[in-house]
Amino acid sequence: MANSKYEYVKKFELDDRLPPSNWLVVRIDGCSFHRFSAIHEFEKPNDECALNLMNACASAMLEQFPDIVFAYGVSDEYSFILKEATEMFQRRASKILSITVSFFTSVYVMKWKDFFPQKELMYPPSFDGRVVCYPKVKIILDYLAWRQVDCHINNQYNTCFWMLVKSGTTEYEAQQVLKGTQKQEKNDLLFEKFGINYNTLPAIFRKGSCVYREMVEEVGKFDRNGCPVKRTRKKVTVGHFDIIKTDFWREHPYILEDNYINASGIKQL
Fold first, then answer.
1. How far apart are alpha carbons 107 and 138 in whole angstroms?
2. 32 known member of a binding site
3. Annotated binding residue 29
4. Is 37 among the annotated ligand-binding positions?
5. Does the annotation place 33 within a ligand binding site?
């Protein structure tokens, strides 16, 4: 582009490149999704179609952006882990946020009919985002544990709340019943009043969703000796696991880079 006397305006732009040697977490949240879910009549406390739509959007993110190594989602929120050495968009925070959030939102709209074929999208959804740097794998694991603990706390409360409301209790009364209750008390309420064993509810509700690249073996064409040729590739997969314990990470060491993980647990703490 040719220089001009107006080019000085570029000096007002801020350099928002994120520091190197840090893992990046992009967290995308729905804006005013209480209203959005009410207008679109999402099932309470969990709408599995809505959750699967979010999972499809997260899967599309991993397909689109190779530097995203893992994603964790619950309700209208998804966190995306970008590898430590990423140079995606030159690590510019504004570019990373604007492109990932807009891509996620556009996929949500495009895939709406796949999950809600009988429902019209009444108005466009919107999502916001933030990007945070984390210098160690341990902090990434603690971040993901924090989000999964939140998933459990919120889902257990919401399950109790909406079961009470559906049984005829007002929303205010349900809030008062649950005020100050602990985990076991909520479990007892669900079992004694509604015959629900919380631990048998679908894992997608209790544990949230993990999106990652699974190592899979495929059988291809035959070689000259007539033997099938096998190859290993990474396939974007959705699962619902406990990611607070180390079992998942020991079984998938390549997600957060093999040199950080061994059979006894997490290295580089």
1. 31
2. yes
3. yes
4. no
5. yes
Measured CA to CA, the distance from residue 88 to residue 94 in angstroms comes to 12
Q: Residue-wise pLDDT tens for the chain (269 aa)?
A: 567 889 889 889 889 999 999 999 999 999 999 999 999 999 999 999 999 999 999 999 999 999 999 999 999 999 999 999 999 999 999 999 999 999 999 999 999 999 999 999 999 999 999 999 999 999 999 999 999 999 999 999 999 999 999 999 999 999 999 999 999 999 999 999 999 999 999 999 999 999 999 988 776 676 667 677 677 788 999 999 999 999 999 999 999 974 444 444 544 43
Alpha helices in the chain (DSSP H): 33-39, 48-64, 93-115, 137-166, 171-178, 183-194, 203-207, 247-251
Residue type, 109: V
Residues 11, 27, 182, 34, Cα dihedral to 10°? 90
> What pTM was computed for the model?
0.89
Residue 221 has a CB neighbour count (10 Å cut-off) of 6
Is 31 a known ligand-binding residue? yes
Q: How many CA atoms lie within 13 A of 95 on its CB side?
A: 12
Asked whether residue 12 is marked as a ligand-binding residue, the answer is no
